[in-house]
Amino acid sequence: MSQWAAVVLAAGQGKRMHSFIPKVLHPVCGKEMVRHVTDAVRQALSGPVVLVTAPGAEAVRQCLGEGFQYAVQEQPLGTGHALMQADQALKGRASNILVLYGDTPLIQGETLGRLMAQHEDSGAAVTLLTSSLVPPEGLGRIQRDVLGQVAQVVEEVEADEAQRALREVNGGMYAFRADWTWNALGRLTPSHSGEYYLTNLAAMAVREGLPVSSVTSMEEMEIFGVNTRVQLAQAERAMRERILNRWMLEGVTIIDPASTYVGAEVVIGQDTTIHPNTTLRGRTAIGQRCEVGPNSLVYDSTIGDDCKVVASMLEEAVLEDHVDIGPFSHLRPGAVVEREVHIGNFAEVKNSRLGAGTKVGHFSYIGDAQVGKNVNYAAGAITCNFDGVNKNVTEIGDDAFIGCDTMLVAPVKVGERSVTGAGAVVTKDIPSDSLAVGMPARTRKRNKQRAAENSLS
Ligand code: UD1
Ligand code: MG
């Protein structure tokens, strides 16, 4: 039998969200609320973790993947009833149970660790995590006796005026002694609303003369629960601040935290600077000494060291080291940019590899292309990759010079060191060391001297 197991309750209807998707799947800083919670749980314990979900909540399973057990609560009859659904999965498998709600994304593993330690040290039947740092509205209030011991948790809807005035609230994270709890849950009676409140276990333990203990959350907002979209935005703001503070403390300069949005799963290297009005999202990783922004959007992309991205958008793109981009360029999925590439303004790159040292200065499109090293891709050049039915590939050899306004009508290849003249419409492959001019482009063997005369900058 393992010492600890955890149960995350996520079967509520989330009515107050007015949403077609389960409440716990709403993201906070780009990561589903329930995943924030299960990640914190995983930091605190390695025993079994059971998710209680509503029937048909396949999306929650998909979101969390392997490593969890699931129990279904057929009807949302309250948090006490929800925990009861996990007894099959856990009875006899753990001596203590950590219980959390799936809608409290700001909880941290370290705090759960403190809750568990206090529970063990105090020998309590129930240990509550409480806080006096969050706005109490909508939360259960902690009522203590004259000795300061927890007497009961009063839900707001059932609280009288004096109880509502209490500032200490129930965080919705608990440690329970398992044997007592499985039995006590069966003795819960419904509240006025008809729901079985898990919180009533505190008063029940007190009535039975069992110790009830508590731990206080130190960080403002840590136990904040999300029931409405207004609270979702409040949680987002708190999480955003936590993420930004963490990166700043690890050596990232954030010029204006108020206009910088960094997702929960983003990684940023030391001495990188994030300029205002910039969003980094998804599985983005940024190297050291980069400058990102202002006005940049980076989604699910990898950026090497010493890169610069100004007023540009990157989606599922990969940049090696010493790349500079922007302003006003767009790298779409599958863009792989090798080291020391320069991409200036109004360039779009999709599903293409650009070799080291290549320059794409102005107004251009590169789609489904393999571009070699040290290619000069001049103003207005584009790959005509789509013939209306298929996406076709363009290949450009190392050291080629693609002149201004060249149309590369794919599928087509431009050989190494070849040059296209301004306005060339390239419909046929160009061998290496050649010059192609006109519409449709005709190829001539390139004489080094003539090439120099013809070269366009
Ligand atoms: C609950 C607590 C309250 C505490 C607050 C902290 C109760 C009765 N009240 O209130 O004291 O201050 O959380 O955020 O527990 N759920 C189920 N099945 C159900 C009902 C709820 O799985 O039948 C799940 C929900 O998905 C949610 C969690 O339990 O993740 C809490 O439910 P919610 O309705 O949000 O409770 P609160 O009103 O926030
Ligand atoms: Mg809630």
Description:
With 457 residues, the protein is α/β, with parallel strands linked by helices. Helix 1 crosses helix 5. The radius of gyration is 30 Å and the shape is elongated. Helix 2 links the parallel strand 4 and strand 5 (69-72). The strands form six sheets. It has a 17-stranded mixed β-sheet that branches. It binds uridine-diphosphate-N-acetylglucosamine (UD1) and magnesium ion. Magnesium ion binds at residues 101, 103, 225, 227. Magnesium ion is lined by residues 101, 103, 225, 227.
Estimate nothing, just give the exact number of structural domains. 2
Structural class, by secondary structure, is alpha/beta
What's the shape? elongated
How many strands in all?
A: 40
How many helices does DSSP assign? Answer: 10
CATH architecture tag of the largest domain? Alpha-Beta Complex
Unreliable spans are: none
**Briefly, what CATH class of the largest domain?**
Alpha Beta
Q: Report the bound ligands by name, code or SMILES.
A: uridine-diphosphate-N-acetylglucosamine, magnesium ion
Binned, the helix content reads 10-25%
